[in-house]
């Protein structure tokens, strides 16, 4: 893991679950993978909801994207 990818994981650890805000998306285990671009300016995150019908999936994706956009040029 590069230093920037470590920073991405730190950012994600601060993104709260919209239904249980005392837990982060990392705590929930829904962040499956974080891959950054070769130049370190972009990041791709793979999220897997806790169940397929999770009503908060779109909110979580939006929150993750917004948080990472503060650190990366492309999310």
Q: What does this protein look like?
A:
The chain has two helices and two strands, in the order αββα. β1 and β2 (43-47) form a beta hairpin. The model has no long low-confidence stretch (mean pLDDT 91). It has helices at 3-13, 57-69; strands at 31-36, 43-47. Helices cover 32% and strands 15% of the residues. It is α+β, with helices and mostly antiparallel strands and 75 residues long. A two-stranded antiparallel ribbon has the order 1-2.
Q: How much is the radius of gyration in Å?
A: 12 Å
Question: Main beta sheet, described?
Answer: 2 strands, antiparallel
Strand % is 5-15%
Ends: how far apart? 17 Å
Note the overall shape: elongated
Q: Identify low-pLDDT runs.
A: none
H-E string: HEEH
Separate helix tally: 2
Mean pLDDT: 91
Overall SS class = alpha+beta
The count of β-strands is 2
Sequence of strands across the biggest β-sheet: 1-2
Helix content: 25-40%
């Amino acid at each position: 893991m590069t230093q920037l990818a470590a920073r991405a994981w730190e950012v994600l650890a601060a993104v709260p679950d919209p239904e249980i805000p005392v837990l982060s998306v990392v705590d929930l285990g829904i962040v499956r993978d974080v891959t950054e671009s070769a130049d370190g300016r972009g990041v791709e995150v793979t999220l897997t909801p806790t169940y397929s019908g999770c009503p908060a999936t779109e909110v979580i994706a939006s929150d993750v994207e917004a948080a990472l956009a503060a650190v990366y040029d492309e999310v």
